Amino acid sequence: MSQALHPMLNIAVKAARTAGALINRASLDLDLLKVGTKSPNDFVTEVDEAAEQAIIDTLLAAYPGHGILAEESGRSRGARDSDYVWIIDPLDGTTNFIHGFPVYAVSIALAFRGQVQQAVVYDPTRNDLFYASRGRGAYLNDKRIRVSRRTRMADALIGTGFPFRKGDNFKRYLAMFEAVMPQCAGLRRPGAAALDLCYVAAGCYDGFFETGLNPWDIAAGALIITEAGGLVGNFTGEADYLHQRELVAGNPKVYAQLVQTLAPFSRVIKDDDKAAVATDAGANTTTPEAALAASLDAPAPAADAPPTPPARKAVRIRKADAAAPAAPAAERPRPRGPRPPKSDAPF
Question: How far is residue 222's CA from residue 256's CA, in Å, rounded to a whole number?
C-alpha cells in the first residue's frame, strides 16, 4: 500500500487477507462444504469457523493482551478485561457464500473502551479492501473514498436487509419498506451488511437501513462510513446503534431524511407516554435494556376487539424519565402563550 497504516490496522489487514484466502479456496468446491444451522435460515460453515480461528490467531499473536468478540466463538478467546476488543465477523454473508452468490466479506474492527478505532472490510471475490483509522479517512484499496453528494431521497439508492431469523417481525419490516420505497429511486438487498455499509462509504448507495444486526455486522463498516463523511445511528438518529439491533446510515442529507421516516419504527421508542413507564412495577430500576425489551411489538388485536385509539406521539425512554413518577394529569401545568412555529427540520 502506498500509505503507512496504523500498526493495529496493518495487523487487521493481514488477518482479513488470511481469512479471505481460506474463503476463496473453499469457494472453488462448495459441494464439499459442511454446513450447520445455528437457527432457521442462519447458517454456519466450517469455513466460517476456520476463517475466524485464523483471524484470532493472527491478532492475538501480535496483541496477546487484547480481547476478542467474534460471531462464532464469542469471547472464549482473548483477554476478558482488556480496553482493546477486536470485533470479528469472519464471513458476513454466509448464505450467499454457500449458494455461490459472490457477495460476502470479512469484517474486523478494533474498539478501545467501547469506541471503534480501526476497521477493515475485505471482499475476497473482488480483492477489494475497505479500511479506516479514526481521524485518518476511509479508503478502498489505495483510493480515498467519500459518501455521495445526493441531497434528495427521490434520487437516492438505498440499501437494506430483510429479516430472516425466527422471531424477527417481518410485518414491521414491510411497513418500513412501504414507507421508504416510494420516497427513493430504488432499494437493494445483496445480503451482506458489512459490504452494504462500505458501499455507502464509497458513494454507491446514498443510504442504508436494517434491523436485527449484531455488533460484528456493523462495527467496521460504521467507522468506514463516518470516516468517509457519512452518518450512522439508530432509527431515532442517535449514536448508540452498536447494540440496538437497528441501524440507519447515509450521506448527511439522505441520513436525515431516512431518520425522519424510520423513527416511528424504532425498537427503542415506546408509544406510551412517560407516565405509563413510571407507574410500571419496578419503574425505579428501569434500564435501557429493559426499555428495549418492553418496546417490542405487541401482538395484533383480535378481530372483534374495539378500535385502537390514535397513538400518542412516540417518546424516547431515558433513565431519568423512568426514575421519577409522572405528575397526575390534573397537576401538570398547561402551556401558556402562542405555540411556536412548526419546524420543517428533519429532527
Answer: 16
Q: Exposed e or buried b for every residue in 78-114, given b needs 16+ CB within 10 A?
A: bbeebebbbbbbbbbbbbbbbeeeebbbbbbbbbeee
**The 3-state secondary structure of the chain, one letter per residue:** CCCCCCHHHHHHHHHHHHHHHHHHHHHCCHHHCCEEEEECCEEEEHHHHHHHHHHHHHHHHHCCCCEEEECCCECCCECCCCCEEEEEEEEECHHHHHCCCCCCEEEEEEEECCEEEEEEEEECCCCEEEEEECCCCEEECCEECCCCCCCCHHHCEEEECCCCCCCCCHHHHHHHHHHHHHHCCEEECCCCHHHHHHHHHCCCCCEEEEECCCHHHHHHHHHHHHHCCCEEECCCCCCCCCCCCEEEEECHHHHHHHHHHHHHHCCCEECCCHHHHHHCCCHHHCCHHHHHHHCCCCCCCCCCCCCCCCCCCCEECCHHHHHCCCCCHHHCCCCCCCCCCCCCCCC
Q: Where are the alpha helices (DSSP H) in 103-251?
A: 170-180, 193-201, 215-227
Average pLDDT over residues 91-112: 96
> What letter does residue 284 receive in the DSSP assignment?
G
- What is the tens place of the pLDDT at every residue in 15-58? 999 999 999 999 998 888 777 766 554 567 899 999 999 999 99
Q: Report yes or no on whether pTM surpasses 0.70.
A: yes
Q: Are 173 and 213 in contact (CB under 8 A)?
A: no
Q: Do the beta carbons of residue 74 and residue 85 sit within 8 Å? A: no
Q: How many CB atoms lie within 10 A of CB 135?
A: 7
pLDDT digits (tens, 9 = 90+) for 52-78: 999 999 999 999 999 999 998 899 999
Q: In this predicted structure, what is the pLDDT of residue 139? A: 98
